[in-house]
Design a protein that fits this description.
The protein is mainly α and 133 residues long. The N and C termini lie far apart (61 Å). The relative contact order is 0.11. Keywords: Cell projection, Cilium, Flagellum.
Length: 133
């Protein structure tokens, strides 16, 4: 079952930094491959009992401040809005990718059925031509 955004329970989550601003170069690609884009601080290791709204402030639409984590200044509403728009676009893109992957899988299935049918008809044609001779 998928966990809510910000409550990643995979083994890789223990090695990710607690704050997005404290990343090694190249950390953005690794974060995006994990399937989420953080806009606030998160716990370095999620609890085994699942997540709550307090563990994942993004789920409730609230960003909590944690000690030692830089937070955007109150005047950075435009930056927060842009991040929210990017997150929304990212979610939409992921949903589109999932739909397209399902369609590709179905097309591959249909292609296989078509090839099986062609092989069957070719075999029948050879058998029929062999009987006529």
């Amino acid at each position: 079952m998928d966990s809510p955004a910000g409550t990643d329970t995979s083994p890789d989550s223990a090695s990710t930094p607690a704050c997005p601003g404290h990343r090694e170069p190249g950390g953005w690609a690794a974060q995006e491959e994990l399937g989420y884009l953080e806009t606030g601080c998160s716990k370095a290791k999620a609890g085994a009992g699942g997540g709550s709204a307090q563990d994942a402030p993004h789920a409730a639409g609230v960003t909590k401040s944690r000690p030692g984590c830089p937070q955007p200044a109150p005047g950075d509403a435009a930056v927060r809005l842009q991040l929210a728009e990017r997150e929304q676009a990212l979610l939409l893109a992921r949903e589109t990718i999932q739909i397209l992957q399902l369609k590709v899988g179905r097309l591959e299935q249909l292609l296989h059925l078509k090839n099986v049918r062609i092989d069957d008809l070719s075999r029948r044609l050879r058998d029929t031509q062999g009987q006529q001779r």
